[in-house]
Amino acid sequence: MSVLISPSLLSADFGNLNSEIDLINESEADWLHIDVMDGVFVPNISFGFPVLEFVNRRCAKPLDVHLMIVEPQKFINEVKQIGGAIMTVHYEACTHLHRVVQQIHAAGMKAGVSLNPHTPVALLEDIIEDVDVVLLMSVNPGFGGQKFIPRILDKVRDLKAMIARRHAHALIEIDGGVNLETGRQLVEAGADALVAGSFVFHSEAPLETIARLKQL
């Protein structure tokens, strides 16, 4: 199976949002990654549900919704209503993570759990069999265009071993600093899905860039 590619809407040109989403529809991308930020959990604010309602109407790809917010469980229904196929919450933001994962599944979505760069994957040992996606942040969350943290490669290998050991089915997704070189390293380490923002939307040929990422 080729690697899944999820371009990040955060890096799109919002002055030309229609054409940016049409580009994604035409591309080989598998998902569209959406970062929702509240200015509390991370030091930035992105966009809210009215914008995402428009994105859902326009986008033909499954929406990969990543909530970088406090108390993400309060917005499960809203994410479902705007067409979320995957809802990813942060381990660091959920006191009762297993309950939140159950609620996401009950709403009919796939459940993802994200870890910040400093959070060890060993903390997922008791929930890995219940989640569909583990999103490892390979930059500090909050802003696009940051430099890839190489230590994440070891985390991918450790997580892949855990998934195999527990006979789990979770996909490993990586967000931050992804390009052709880091993407190749991540796929070799065991990553299943790559989020790419500025590398896709700021490239001279985004369709070709996505196609090249798919070939890693």
From TrEMBL:
Pathway the protein acts in: Carbohydrate degradation
Active site (catalytic residues): 35, 175
Task: Tell me the InterPro entries matching this sequence.
Answer: Aldolase_TIM (IPR013785), Ribul_P_3_epim (IPR026019), Ribul_P_3_epim-like (IPR000056), RibuloseP-bd_barrel (IPR011060)
Q: What chemistry does it catalyse, as a reaction equation?
A: D-ribulose 5-phosphate = D-xylulose 5-phosphate
Question: What processes does the entry annotate via GO biological process terms?
Answer: pentose catabolic process; pentose-phosphate shunt
Q: What class of enzyme is it?
A: isomerase
Q: Name one Pfam family in it.
A: Ribul_P_3_epim
Q: How is the cofactor bound?
A: Binds 1 divalent metal cation per subunit.
Look up keyword Phosphoprotein and say if it applies: no
| Protein's job | Catalyzes the reversible epimerization of D-ribulose 5-phosphate to D-xylulose 5-phosphate.
Q: Which NCBIfam families has this protein been placed in?
A: PRK05581.1-4 (NF004076), rpe (TIGR01163)
Q: What is this protein called?
A: Ribulose-phosphate 3-epimerase
State the species of origin: Barnesiella viscericola DSM 18177
- Organism taxonomic ancestry: Bacteria, Pseudomonadati, Bacteroidota, Bacteroidia, Bacteroidales
